[in-house]
Inverse folding.
C-alpha cells in the first residue's frame, strides 16, 4: 500500500485528473465524483474486490461509497462476475424480449409489496422521470410534490431544491430548467406532513403525485419520522394523487422488500435502481397493474429505451437478488452496521466532536452538528467544512467515504468485523485532525 502518513500518494490520480479536465467537464462523468466539496483530487479507482477499492497509485481503501449504493454484495462478487461473463458470451444486447427479463421482473414483483407489474429502464433518473410521467398521464394533473434536499435524478422536474450533487455544489435549482416547469414542482420540508396537508388543501386537485425518498439518502441519511409515511399515504388518498416511493437507494437496501416493507406503507408506484443492477446500468419502476398498463404498448403513456432490460445488467441484477435473498443477509448487515455506528458515536463523543450519526439499516451519515438532523435545514446546518477534513483524514487512513456531506455511507456483505475495526482505528486517528 503506497501510503505515506496522513496523505495518500495520489500522484497518478492527479496526473489523470489533469488529463481528464481537458476532455470531460470537471474531469468526471458525474459531478459529485469530482470531490470538489472535500478538497478535490479524487483517487482514480482501478479495481474493486469485496469491501475494498484500489486506486491507480496502488493505494487500497475500505470502500463505503459502494458505487453510491449498488454494491451491497461487494465489488467483483464471484457470482455476479460469473453471471455477467456468461451472459456476455451469448451477446451483449438484442433489443428483443428475453427470458432473463421475465425472471428479474418476477423476483422484483415477488419481493416489493407495491409492485404488480414492473418496467426495466437504464437508470434511476429514467425510473423516476417515467413514474412521474405515468402519474401525470393517469391523473391528468400537472403538479408534483417533492421534498427539500431529496434527489430523484437529474430530470427537469426534480431539479428544484434538490439534494445529492446539487446540494453538494450549492446549486439547488439548475439553470436550463424552464420556469414553467419548476412551477409545477412543489418542494416541501421532509418529515413535515402538515406542510403536505397545507399543500393538499391549497391545490390537492392539481397534484399528480407526491414523490418521496422513504429514507432520505441525498441530504445525508434521514429516516422518516413516525407517522410521516403513513401521513403521506392518507394525504395522497384524500387528494386523489399517487404516492411514489423513490427506492432507488432503499430498494433491496433497507429490507428484502425495501422501505415499503420495512415501514409497512405501500406506495402506488415504486422506483428502483442501483442494487437491482449489481453495478450495471439498471433502473425500474412498477406499481399496480391498472396504473402500469397505461404504459405503451398497452396504454398511451409513452416510455422506451434501447438498452432497457439489457442482458448483462439483468444477469448482474439476478445474481445480486439471489445473494440478497439468502437467510440472514439483512440481519447480518444490520448487526455489522449497528456495531460500527455505535462505536463511531463513542469515538466522536470521547473526542468532544459534536456529531449526529443517522442510520437506517446499512446506510448511514455522520453530520458534524450537535442537533438532531431530521430534514434539509438540519443537514445544511451541519459543518460541511469539518466533514471535508474528516473525509480527507479518513482517506489518508485508508477509508473511502462519499466525497460529500450530503450522501450516505453504505455497508455491504463484504465488510467484515476486522474491516469495522480498521474503520474505527481510522476514525480514532481522523478525529484528532478535526
Ligand atoms: P441515477 O440516474 O443516478 O442512476 O439515479 C438517480 C437517483 C434517483 N433517486 C435516488 C434516491 C438517487 O439517490 C439517485 C442517484 N443517487 C446519486 C447519489 N446519491 C447518484 C450519484 C451521482 O449522481 O453520481
Amino acid at each position: 500500500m503506497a501510503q505515506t502518513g496522513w496523505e495518500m500518494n495520489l500522484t497518478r490520480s492527479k496526473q489523470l485528473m489533469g488529463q481528464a479536465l481537458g476532455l470531460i467537464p470537471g474531469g468526471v462523468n458525474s459531478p459529485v465524483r469530482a470531490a470538489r466539496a472535500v478538497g478535490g483530487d479524487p483517487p482514480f479507482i482501478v479495481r474493486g474486490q469485496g469491501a475494498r477499492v484500489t486506486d491507480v497509485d496502488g493505494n487500497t481503501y475500505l470502500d463505503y461509497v459502494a458505487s453510491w449504493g449498488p454494491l451491497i454484495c461487494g465489488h467483483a462478487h464471484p457470482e455476479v462476475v460469473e453471471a455477467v461473463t456468461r451472459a456476455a458470451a451469448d451477446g451483449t444486447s438484442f433489443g428483443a424480449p428475453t427470458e432473463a427479463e421475465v425472471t428479474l421482473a418476477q423476483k422484483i414483483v415477488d419481493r416489493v409489496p407495491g409492485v404488480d407489474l414492473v418496467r426495466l429502464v437504464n437508470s434511476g433518473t429514467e425510473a423516476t422521470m417515467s413514474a412521474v410521467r405515468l402519474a401525470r398521464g393517469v391523473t391528468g394533473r400537472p403538479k408534483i410534490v417533492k421534498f427539500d434536499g431529496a434527489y430523484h435524478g437529474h430530470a427537469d422536474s426534480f431539479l428544484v431544491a434538490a439534494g445529492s450533487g446539487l446540494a453538494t455544489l450549492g446549486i439547488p435549482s439548475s439553470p436550463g430548467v424552464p420556469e414553467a416547469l419548476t412551477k409545477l414542482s412543489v418542494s416541501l420540508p421532509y418529515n413535515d406532513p402538515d406542510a403536505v396537508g397545507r399543500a393538499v388543501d391549497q391545490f390537492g386537485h392539481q397534484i399528480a403525485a407526491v414523490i418521496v425518498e422513504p429514507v432520505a439518502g441525498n441530504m445525508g441519511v434521514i429516516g422518516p419520522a413516525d407517522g410521516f409515511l403513513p401521513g403521506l399515504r392518507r394525504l395522497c388518498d384524500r387528494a386523489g394523487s399517487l404516492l411514489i416511493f423513490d427506492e432507488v437507494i432503499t430498494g433491496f437496501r433497507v429490507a428484502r422488500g425495501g422501505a415499503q416493507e420495512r415501514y409497512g406503507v405501500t406506495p402506488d408506484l415504486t422506483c428502483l435502481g442501483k442494487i437491482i443492477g449489481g453495478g450495471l446500468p439498471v433502473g425500474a419502476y412498477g406499481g399496480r397493474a391498472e396504473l402500469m398498463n397505461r404504459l405503451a404498448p398497452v396504454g398511451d403513456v409513452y416510455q422506451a429505451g434501447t438498452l432497457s432490460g439489457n442482458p448483462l445488467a439483468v444477469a448482474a441484477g439476478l445474481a445480486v437478488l439471489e445473494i440478497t435473498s439468502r437467510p440472514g443477509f439483512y440481519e447480518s448487515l444490520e448487526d455489522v452496521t449497528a456495531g460500527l455506528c455505535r462505536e463511531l458515536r463513542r469515538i466522536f463523543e470521547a473526542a468532544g466532536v459534536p456529531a449526529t450519526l443517522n442510520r437506517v439499516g446499512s446506510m448511514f451519515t455522520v453530520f458534524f452538528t450537535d442537533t438532531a438532523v431530521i430534514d434539509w435545514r438540519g443537514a445544511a446546518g451541519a459543518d460541511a467544512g469539518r466533514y471535508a477534513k474528516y473525509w480527507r483524514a479518513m482517506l489518508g487512513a485508508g477509508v473511502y467515504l462519499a466525497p460529500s456531506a450530503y450522501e450516505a455511507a453504505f455497508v455491504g456483505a463484504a465488510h467484515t468485523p476486522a474491516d469495522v475495526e480498521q474503520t474505527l482505528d481510522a476514525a480514532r486517528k481522523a478525529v484528532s485532525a478535526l
Q: What stands out?
A: The mean pLDDT is 96.
